[in-house]
Amino acid sequence: MANTSTTPPVRQHWAHQLLDWVDARFPLTPLWESQWGKYIAPKNMNFWYIFGSLSALVLALQIVTGIFLTMNYKPDALLAFASVEYIMREVPWGWLIRYMHSTGASAFFIVVYLHMFRGLLYGSYRKPRELTWIFGCLIFLSLMAEAFFGYQLPWGQMSFWGAQVIVNLFAAIPVIGPDLAIWIRGDYVIGDATLNRFFAFHVIAIPLVLIGLVVAHLMALHETGSNNPDGIEIKKQPKDPHTGLPLDGIYAHPYYSVKDVFGVAVFLLVFSIIMFFAPEMGGYFLEYNNFIPADPLKTPPHIAPVWYFTPYYSIQRATTTDLLYVLAAGVVVLVAFYWREIPRGLWRKLTLAVAAVLLVGFYFIEAKVWGVVLMGASVLFFFLMPWLDRAPVKSIRYKGPLYKTALAIFVVAFLVLGWLGTEAPTPAYTRLAQVGTLLYFGFFILMPWYSKADSHKPVPSRVTK
Amino acid sequence: MTRISRIVLAAALALAAGANARAAETGWKLERAGVDVTDRASLQSGARTFVNYCLGCHGLALMRYSALTSIGLTEEQIKDNLMFTADKVGQPIATAMSARQGKEWFGVAPPDLSVIARARGADWLYTYLRTFYRDASTPTGWNNALFPNVGMPHVLWSLQGERALRTEELMRDGKPVSDGHGGTVKVSRFETIAPGSMSAVEYDRTVRDLVAFLVWAGEPHQLARHQLGIWVLYALVILVFLTYFLYKSYWKDLH
Questions:
Q1: Interface residue A254 vs chain B (CB under 8 A)
Q2: Which run of H or E residues covers position B176?
Q3: pLDDT tens track for A440-453
Q4: Closest-CA residue in chain B for A44?
Q5: Does any CB of chain B come closer than 8 Å to the CB of residue A43?
Q6: For chain B, how long is the longest CA-to-CA vector?
């Protein structure tokens, strides 16, 4: 407030004085205003836009409950299993903290998957939000690592044998594989050394990376501004002469603050129903076999990862020698199909070189290794979305039938792969998983073609309801 | 909700409905245990059966004797009737048999049963404890239809009696019924050799109480969890309404 000689000086409230004191030394107010307080968001963000805030909420929940669990958990192969049960039985409110954390892990993946699906619906990865998307993909990767390491800690049969299966995948890599696997385990078998280092990764290394990436994700988003269900850039709109805001822009605070708080309340209701009344979620959130202490001498008949990893696990298992023939044919067809699109010179040479390496590799390197490669690729392809999508519009509302069909097939393939990953493999299931794998990758690899060939509706200048 | 949201919700519900059931490895059909962990008489009866028949080999080592106070027993009752392997109620319900002895005597150390109900499920335990039969070919003279060649003998035999398993081809019109894979359909049934001290109904009830006790012991705070959960849900429903009206009242001047 400006003081002039005509108005007497106003005595500020002590809180304002304190804020002024801080602002003179640290950009607290500018930070708050640029990130949320004066952030301008499109007014038409719908239901799907709640999952970003919810992801942040679950991250906070996992960190806080994780801190309390760490106070009683013992990262020791002889003590770990019993220490988790000690938390469940003896630590005051320990059962609640543990269930919050275990339900939170699955909830994290649910909200993140829905958040990513929102991006696929409305083209949130498109220019100018490529970096927001890439930071998001990195968050997803870190989250997978975090969940994998965390799942070892209860030291039940699924913890142990899940780790065994995944670490053995690395052992399949030619030449360096076996030594790499020993280096990861810190022992010749999954054991105390492995548990200790996975604990270190789970409680400090990955969370640090996650928090840093979340900050980068939000800063990048608040730099470009949020996308919306119409895929219209509100920053390019004329400004309202009264408010000075873009025509379809509103302040995130208080409008989206109150909307998000409502979303949080609904989320907590659903979360509590699961946590209090079905914390095992029928064996999906807490696997039954993980209530049997880890036994290196007794391989369970059926090793299944937790539900959020099953689509990728399915892709890995589906990669048999049969599939490699199909993949080899696919590489040849794709190179021929896209040949005219590839710029002459270096790019074409590079394409041929990569194709040749793949074809030779399919022949000489065992299918298991390619399973690992495909499992990695199934996540890495998300990073390329901003450049795979060639549609002139962002949102599915203005995209044509090709993209809608492709996205529907992708979602079905993802869910079917996820379901197959929880089941023991049979020849028929493996075939189904192989079809699912091809459809999964087809969504990405054919996108440059179908997103361009599609028919598109004109995008209006103002957002719709 | 948009159309897409409705599709996603329907898919999620369909997925949740087909829950990840515990598999019985042999294909022996699991029977419903129908346990009620709120029934204290049932839990106390199960606790008695457990200390009398199971604790000799299996511990509940992740639980203290004093935890039994929460199924309505006093410390005096616990000390006088149930505490065979400890001096103080604060001690764990451990078995007196060592893992090494167990391995020597049964080929495999009997597992601790603290969370067995969470691993196996009530129905599995209920079926398992009711499908022992006489088999001269095993070291113990007992076998189990649900868990073939299990190292454990029929500990409750004096209650259930001795039974034999008869497996025969299913006959229809004097001919065996084909299973469609080149074999024939087999049916198994138990035949009493020597009756036990209990009738079949009494035995089933005893096993059900024992399983109920194990289900409770798998997570002693489960009743508290349900009770707290109801209050939390009430509070959250109120919060959902309040935040909804807050959201609507802020947004009503936007168009």
A1: yes
A2: strand B175-176
A3: 999 999 999 999 99
A4: B255
A5: yes
A6: 84
- Domain spanning B3-220: CATH 1.10.150.130: no
pTM: 0.92
Q: What is the mean pLDDT of residues A39-58?
A: 97
Cα of A85 to nearest chain B Cα, Å: 7
B126 and B31 in contact (C-beta within 8 Å)?
yes
List pLDDT tens digits, range A261-270: 999 999 999 9
A18-43 pLDDT, tens digit per residue, is 999 999 999 999 999 999 999 999 99
**Residue with tokens 């064996």, as numbered in its chain:** A283
Class of residue B8 by CB neighbours under 10 A (exposed 0-12, middle 13-18, buried 19+): middle
Size of interface A-B (CB pairs under 8 A): 114
CATH class of the domain defined by A28-296: mainly alpha
CB within 8 Å: A258 and B111 = no
Q: Where are chain A's structural domains?
A: 28-296, 304-455
* A47: nearest CB among B1, B219, B251: B1
Element (H, E) at A1: none
The Cα-based distances of A75 to A90, A181, A205, A290 in angstroms read 18, 21, 16, 16
Chain B neighbors of A279, CB-CB under 8 A: 225
Q: Is B198 exposed, middle or buried (0-12, 13-18, 19+ CB in 10 A)?
A: middle
Q: Touching check for A78 and chain B: CB below 8 Å?
A: no
Which residues have C-beta within 8 Å of that of residue B21, sequence separation ≥ 6? Answer: A282, A283
Provide CATH code, domain A304-455: 1.20.810.10
> Would you call B89 helix, strand, or coil by DSSP?
coil
Domains of chain B, residue spans = 3-220, 223-255
Q: What is the ipTM of this complex?
A: 0.90
